[in-house]
Design a protein that fits this description.
single chain; 106 residues; mainly alpha; Chorismate Mutase Domain, subunit A; 0% strand; elongated; isomerase; Chorismate_II_sf
Amino acid sequence: MAAPEATHAPAPAQSDPVLDGYRRSIDNIDAALIHILAERFRITQAVGRYKAETKMPPADPAREAKQIARLRQLAVEADLDPEFSEKFLRFVIDEVIRHHRRAQDG
């Protein structure tokens, strides 16, 4: 019978204070993004309820196009890839519309 192979867990990486500082900043930004998204969705859910009550359609393609153009321009000004910003916003908008449709369905 063969002896079981020894498994070696990777040695813990030595702490790098510069990298740790960057990572703490990234963690703080990620937390802020989550809180901002949560607040945005609280507001858009209220919009969805209002649209359902007033029989407005869940999607507003003209507003969506305007917002995408506005945020693409902001991305350019912020030195962020406008394609990325549009994909991100489209993902958020699609989720909002899904919530609005759900509000209309009761």
